[in-house]
Amino acid sequence: VAFVVCRSLEGLKTFSYLEELILDNNLLGNDLLLPRLPHLHTLTLNKNQISFQRNTCKILLDHLAEVVPSLQYLSLLGNIACPNELVCKEKDEDDYQRYRYFVLHKLTNLKFLDTRKVTTREREEALIRGAFMKVVKPKDAKAASAAASASPEMHYTPLPAGSRDLTNHRGILGKCRYIYYGKHSEGNRFIQDDQL
After folding, report:
1. What InterPro entries does this protein map onto (predicted)?
2. Which of 11, 76, 134, 172 is the most core-located residue (most Cβ within 10 A)?
3. Which residues have C-beta within 8 Å of that of residue 134, sequence separation ≥ 6?
């Protein structure tokens, strides 16, 4: 058994009948290109450098759908692309579930994703909402949040500009973008028609 760190998969062209491919702990990234492997049913890419940023996620998943049509088991654990709360503290179960819906939307034949079996309910949700599950964040979210915390005027407030000053206690007339109808108010259930 030989362990080799891979950056390219060009040599796989000659193995067209390959059924299982384990590429864990390598330096494979978003530019991963597999040759056409029509019989491949298991692909593990754990602990690589795959990060689904911008359109790279869609491009990689579209590529896998095209070159490995028989794929039934895919594992991407340990990559930035897989938002696992055990690896990254900022991620939670909802992030992971959105990731699953998006991957299942692109790779419809999967029976297992990472370590979990694909359920019928997940498959149905992926068909309906999977295309909308990609999480997009601003390019420099940390810099934007640091700038917002440094200057208090950056925070949104629904109050008009004149009432933001703490020393000014006069009432101000203005328009608000929210309208309260009272439909879901607990207090309104005690008011009867003759009291209106």
Report:
1. LRMDA, LRR_dom_sf
2. 76
3. 52, 57, 58, 98, 102
Rg (CA), the chain: 25
Task: Kindly report, residue by residue over 156-173, the tens digit of the pLDDT.
Answer: 665 556 555 556 555 556
Dihedral angle sign, alpha carbons of residues 98, 100, 103, 104: negative
d(CA 30, CA 65): 15
Q: Which amino acid is at 21?
A: L
Q: Which residues contact 186 (CB under 8 A, 6 or more apart)?
A: none
* 3.40.30, 3.30.70, 3.80.10, 3.40.190: CATH of 19-132: 3.80.10
C-beta of residue 162 within 8 angstroms of C-beta of residue 168: yes
Three-state DSSP class for residue 96? helix
Query: Which amino acid is located at 182 in the chain?
Result: G
What pLDDT digit, counting tens, does each position of 10-69 carry?
A: 778 888 899 999 999 888 888 888 999 999 999 999 998 888 765 677 788 999 999 999
Report d(CA 90, CA 133) in Å as an integer.
17
The label of the residue with tokens 């029976």 reads 111
12 φψ region: left (φ > 0), alpha (ψ -120 to 50), beta (else): alpha
The tally of CA atoms less than 13 A away on the side-chain side of residue 150 is: 6
Look-up of token digits 């602990």: 47
State the CB neighbour count (10 A cutoff) for residue 180. Answer: 7
